[in-house]
C-alpha cells in the first residue's frame, strides 16, 4: 500500500503509546468491551521496560546488595572484591528481554488489543494517522476516545560543544554495553544520583556535577545530604553549586568546562538535566493544542476543553513516575468506559473510581541509591508554602533496633509530617538502607488520612526497621 492511499479503520478507543501507561488504558478499555487499538513507534513496553525502571534497577541491585552485605559482620570480608560487571550487564539485558518486545506484544494480542506499529499523529478530532516503518499509512478513527500516553524524553541543555560530544541521556546510561573508566554525570536529581551510584559501583570513576546547593532538590534536604555522603564514601566526586559552561569531545575524551574555569575530563558524560513531554510531532495543533506541550487534564485524565481526548502518565505533568502513570491509566480507562456506556461519573467524589486523587496528596517515590530514599506526600517546605499548619517529626533511623541488625552502623533519617489541624500524617520521608520497603505503610497512612492517635494501634513487629513508626509517634507525643 503506497503512501498516497490510507486505509481507514474504526475503533472505540485509540491509544498513542504502548508503554505501561498505554497498556493499562488499553487493557481497561478492552475489558469494558470497547474495541481498542494501540500505536507504538518503538518497543511495546516503553521507556520503563527498556531504558528506565527495569534496566536501571537491574544495574543498581547488585551495587546496593554488596553495600548492604559489607555492613553485616561475618559477611563483610566475603564481598570485598569488585562486582562482575559483565554478569551485571548480562542480567540487565535479561530484564530488558534483550530489547525485544515479543512477549509484551503477545500479551496485548491475547487481550484483544490491536497493535499498530509506526508513528501516530492526531489529524483532527478522534482521528489518528499512523505511518508504519514501511511508510504505509492508516487512519484510525476513534468512536469514543483517544488517549495520549507517549511519556517523556530527556532534555539536553544548550551548551557549546554538546551536540558533538555524543553525550549519554538516561537511555544510554541504562543500556550501555561497557563500563566507562571515567563518567561525568551532570544533574543531581533522581536519574543523576541513581546512575552515579550504579556506574560507580560497577567500576567507573564518577564525577557528579549538580547546579543546586544539594542533591535531590525536590525532596527533604537531609535526603540529598545523606545520598551525597553515600556517593562520596563509594568513591564518587560529588560537587554541588557547580555550573557546566561547555562540553567538548576530542577523540575518546570529553572535557567539561565549569563555571569557575576548572576542567573535568571523562570518557563518557551523562546529561541528567530534566524531561520534556514526548508530544512533539504528535499533531496536537490539529485539535487546538501546541505540539511539544504538556497537556492539562481533569482528575479523570481528560484533556481540558475536550470530551474525547485523554492525556495519561508523564504527558500531563502530574507525576513523572511509572506507578503513578499506571494508577492514572486505571482511572482513565474506567472513565472512558463509563462515559462510553453513558454512566454518569461522580465528579464530586474525590475517592471515586474516576478520580486520580492520589496524584495530589499521596505520590510515593523511591530513589534506589545507597542509602535509599523513600518519600510520599509534600515536603515540609512544600506544605508550609501551601499555607498548611504542619509539624515535622524527625528521628534517627539508626537508633531503631531492627536497623542495627539490618546493617552494622546503620545511618539514616526519618521524617513524619503531621497536619496540626487534622492530626493526620500528610507526608513521610525515610532515608537509609532498605528504606524503600517502608514506604507503602506511609502511603496507606497518607492516602487514608489516618489520625495519628489511631496509628498508635498499628503495632510494628520487633525487631524490624518499621519500628521507626513507633519512635516517630513517641517523638510527636513528646
TrEMBL record:
Record protein name field: NAD(P)/FAD-dependent oxidoreductase
Cofactors, names only: FAD
BP GO annotations: 2-oxoglutarate metabolic process
UniProt cofactor note: Binds 1 FAD per subunit.
Molecular function in Gene Ontology: dihydrolipoyl dehydrogenase (NADH) activity; flavin adenine dinucleotide binding
Residue ranges constituting the Pyridine nucleotide-disulphide oxidoreductase dimerisation domain according to the UniProt record: 363-469
Positions of NAD(+) binding: 187-194, 274
Xref: Gene3D superfamilies: 3.30.390.30, FAD/NAD(P)-binding domain
Annotated keywords: FAD, Flavoprotein, NAD, Nucleotide-binding
FAD/NAD(P)-binding domain location: 11-323
Record has Nucleotide-binding as a keyword: yes
Biological source species: Streptomyces triticagri
Family indicated by similarity: Belongs to the class-I pyridine nucleotide-disulfide oxidoreductase family.
Annotated disulfide bonds: 48-53
Residues binding FAD: 57, 120, 150-152, 314
A Pfam family assignment: Pyr_redox_dim
Upper classification of the organism: Bacteria, Bacillati, Actinomycetota, Actinomycetes, Kitasatosporales
InterPro entries to which the protein is assigned, alphabetical: Class-I_Pyr_Nuc-Dis_Oxidored, FAD/NAD-bd_sf, FAD/NAD-binding_dom, FAD/NAD-linked_Rdtase_dimer_sf, Pyr_nuc-diS_OxRdtase, Pyr_nucl-diS_OxRdtase_dimer
Amino acid at each position: 500500500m503506497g503512501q498516497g492511499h490510507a486505509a481507514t479503520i474504526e475503533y472505540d478507543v485509540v491509544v498513542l503509546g504502548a508503554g505501561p501507561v498505554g497498556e493499562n488504558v488499553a487493557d481497561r478499555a478492552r475489558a469494558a468491551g470497547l474495541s481498542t487499538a494501540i500505536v507504538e513507534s518503538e518497543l511495546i513496553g516503553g521507556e520503563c521496560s527498556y531504558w528506565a525502571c527495569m534496566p536501571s534497577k537491574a544495574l543498581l541491585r547488585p551495587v546496593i546488595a554488596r553495600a548492604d552485605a559489607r555492613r553485616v559482620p561475618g559477611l563483610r570480608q566475603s564481598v570485598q572484591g569488585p562486582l562482575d560487571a559483565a554478569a551485571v550487564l548480562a542480567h540487565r539485558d535479561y530484564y530488558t528481554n534483550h530489547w525485544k518486545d515479543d512477549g509484551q506484544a503477545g500479551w496485548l494480542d491475547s487481550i484483544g488489543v490491536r497493535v499498530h506499529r509506526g508513528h501516530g499523529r492526531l489529524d483532527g478530532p478522534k482521528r489518528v494517522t499512523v505511518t508504519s516503518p514501511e511508510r504505509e499509512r492508516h487512519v484510525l478513527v476513534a468512536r469514543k476516545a483517544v488517549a495520549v500516553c507517549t511519556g517523556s524524553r530527556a532534555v539536553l541543555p544548550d551548551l557549546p560543544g554538546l551536540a558533538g560530544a555524543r553525550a549519554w541521556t538516561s537511555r544510554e546510561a541504562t543500556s550501555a554495553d561497557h563500563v566507562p573508566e571515567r563518567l561525568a554525570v551532570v544533574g543531581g536529581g533522581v536519574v543523576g544520583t541513581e546512575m552515579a551510584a550504579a556506574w560507580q559501583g560497577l567500576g567507573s570513576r564518577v564525577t557528579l556535577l549538580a547546579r543546586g546547593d544539594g542533591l535531590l532538590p525536590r525532596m527533604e534536604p537531609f535526603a540529598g545530604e545523606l545520598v551525597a555522603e553515600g556517593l562520596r564514601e563509594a568513591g564518587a566526586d560529588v560537587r554541588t553549586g557547580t555550573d557546566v559552561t561547555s562540553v567538548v569531545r576530542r577523540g575518546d575524551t570529553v572535557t567539561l568546562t565549569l563555571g569557575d574555569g576548572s576542567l573535568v575530563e571523562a570518557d563518557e558524560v551523562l546529561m541528567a538535566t530534566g524531561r520534556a513531554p514526548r508530544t512533539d510531532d504528535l499533531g496536537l495543533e490539529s485539535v487546538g493544542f501546541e505540539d511539544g506541550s504538556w497537556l492539562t487534564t481533569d482528575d479523570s485524565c481528560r484533556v481540558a476543553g475536550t470530551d474525547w481526548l485523554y492525556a495519561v502518565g508523564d504527558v500531563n505533568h502530574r507525576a513523572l513516575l511509572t506507578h503513578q502513570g499506571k494508577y492514572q491509566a486505571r482511572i482513565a480507562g474506567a472513565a472512558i468506559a463509563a462515559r462510553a456506556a453513558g454512566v454518569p461519573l461522580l465528579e464530586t467524589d474525590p475517592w471515586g473510581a474516576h478520580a486520580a486523587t492520589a496524584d495530589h496528596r499521596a505520590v510515593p517515590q523511591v530513589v534506589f541509591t545507597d542509602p535509599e530514599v523513600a518519600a510520599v506526600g509534600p515536603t515540609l517546605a512544600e506544605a508550609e508554602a501551601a499555607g498548611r499548619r504542619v509539624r515535622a517529626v524527625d528521628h534517627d533511623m539508626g537508633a531503631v533496633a531492627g536497623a542495627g541488625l539490618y546493617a552494622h552502623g546503620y545511618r539514616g533519617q526519618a521524617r513524619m509530617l503531621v497536619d496540626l489541624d487534622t492530626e493526620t500524617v500528610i507526608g513521610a520521608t525515610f532515608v537509609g538502607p532498605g528504606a524503600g520497603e517502608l514506604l507503602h505503610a506511609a502511603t496507606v497512612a497518607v492516602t487514608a488520612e489516618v489520625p495519628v492517635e489511631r496509628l498508635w494501634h498499628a503495632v510494628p513487629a520487633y525487631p524490624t526497621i518499621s519500628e521507626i513508626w513507633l519512635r516517630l509517634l513517641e517523638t510527636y507525643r513528646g
